[in-house]
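User: Structure with guanine, tokens only please.
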Amino acid sequence: MDNFSKVLSGKAVADTVLEYVKSTTDRLVRQGIKPGLAVVIVGEDPASQVYVRSKGKKAEECGFLSIKHELAEQTSESQLLSLIASLNEDSTVHGILVQLPLPKHINADKVVQSISPDKDVDGFHYVNVGKLGTGAVAQAFVPCTPAGSMVLIEKVLGPDLSGLDAVVIGRSNIVGKPMANLLLAANATVTIAHSKTKNLRSVCRRADIIVAAVGRPRMVKSDWIKPGALIIDVGINRIVSDPDVGSKSRLVGDVDFDDALNTVGTITPVPGGVGPMTIAMLMANTLKAACLANGLPQPAF
Ligand code: GUN
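Assistant:
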């Protein structure tokens, strides 16, 4: 197989998800239901500002009501909790997302757990974590990055991963743990590797599927990869490519892409892989929340 056909464009798959969200939303709007997404950001973190802007823009493109609450860095925890309480009560809002990280004086977990589980489009509320963990995947809101990664895995391998070994590198609540639960629900044999894992290279070499979510630029090399494996690269690392020439920084994944191409069956690029899928799944989750809130069957992706 040539190298070009080994690259799985998340952008292309995300576009098909978004087309489906838009057409379903058009139909809902004609019935008088407009999905609403409220995004809350506290403080000035530049990366968070960029993410929040693109989430708001995408929500508008999907035909949603898109609400943004930008709060000052010194906002108190109780002010934030009362904003969320009012969004929980607001029937025009179907999805609530509080951008993380929050300033240090705010207890992020308390804030996230105050979001109604029915509006928790990030899938971080314990109710949704518990549903996913017990295999009730269809009833859960699933965190967007692992949900998007799973759509990409299904594109290549289909919905049943019976007999396949999957290694997830990273054990975060946002990506690693929910990713492992999704793979398990699809019948894969799952290993969660992390910073304390011994012989990570040999653990990875057994895998038919590797999901890399560690935040270490180009850590996974071709000799970590079983020939023909599927590699999902969740990492988004900004590196200065060549300081001597004064060149601009660029984004790379957790996988050494050029090296890995020699060995992989399929790999997602960075950028243009998991990133676009994450935002598409946020829109999909918001549409699902709007359908469920109105007693309609949830859309199938
Ligand atoms: N910050 C980084 N990733 C995420 C995410 O998926 N959701 C939220 N709310 N904040 C984030």
